Amino acid sequence: MFVCRHVWTTGPDAGKRCTLGPRMEDGFCIFHSQADEDRHWPDDLAGQLEERARRGLPFEGFRLQDVKLRRINLTGADLAGIDLSGADLSLAQLVKAKLQKADLTNAFLFGANMQEADLSRSFLLGADLAECDLFGASLKSADAFGVDLRRANLSVADLTGADLTEGNLAGANLNGANLQNTKLVDAHLEGVDVSRANSAPNLAGDE
Ligand SMILES: [Zn+2]
Fold first, then answer.
1. In angstroms, what is the span from residue 126 Cα to ligand 1's centroid?
2. Domain range for residue 108?
3. Ligand 1 (ion): which residues have CB within 5 A?
4. What pTM, to 2 d.p., does this model score?
5. What CATH number is attached to the domain comprising 109?
6. Domain count of the fold of the chain
């Protein structure tokens, strides 16, 4: 049986080697491979990932760049630190998903349900989160330069210390959001009632 070079540090298999497949050139499985070679993802990739989420299995170290996972249901999944850059997660169910430090650079999350998701310290540069439901989500210290949050629901969200420089928040709902030290320099705020947030954002770029 193929054994991947990755050793789980979390979850029920902590301390054991990963046994997912198929094997890639560098001795890792397709999910953990560092190689740049083209990956032929299994046809039922979304189903496999949904099954892991349902069973509470870890996604630790997964590198899922550019995968197509529209409408996937990963409710409550622990996706901390994983690489989903360029991935299409439009209309996905990501309620209460743990995405701390996840790389979502240039990811497509249009219309995704991310209520109460933890996106603290995540990388959202250039990501499309238009019409995303981020009610009560944490974007604490998120690196979200140029993020698209048009018409997103950010009510009661925690944006403390997040960098939304040059982001587009036109029509977004910021009612009760925490904007302490949130950087909104050159951000588009048409139709946004910032006064309904519970703290004032940093619009000038001063520290
Ligand atoms: Zn692996």
1. 28
2. 59-207
3. 4, 6, 18, 20, 29, 32
4. 0.94
5. 2.160.20.80
6. 1
